[in-house]
Amino acid sequence: MFALNKKYQQLKNYTRMLKEFQTQDSGFNPKEAFNNIQIKQKEVLELINSRIQRLLRIYQSIQTDIKEQEEKLSSFNKDSLEDIDAMLKLVSKHLRNLKTLSFTGKELLLAKKILSPNQTFKDINQKSQNEITAQIKEKEQLSMKSLNYRLKPK
Known about the structure:
The protein is an all-alpha fold.
């Protein structure tokens, strides 16, 4: 999570610098900013890919352990505390591994933001358009209410 958050902060800095460049003429190089953004996107993809690869390896180890346990279950003694303890330890080990490697919702949102930085510009435009339409609709509703109020017989 920390690495993904750090990459997101760096990407936000680059996009902020790019916005500043668009508003004022400074010594900022837009090609460098786009290259940096692409580099950060590649780093995030590599980070996500490595996490997915580790998850796949854990999944494969779980599958092999399950097959081994199925073979052992034929001779499983329900009264044997050692067998039950061994099974519980195995299950808790796999759960811990999966819990530490699985993606949280926050990490997925950060990755999505990093992998589509141009979306932020589209989102800004879309939000302003949505706000304008909401204001227009609100004014229309208010005018309709006032018109209905005036037309009601007293």
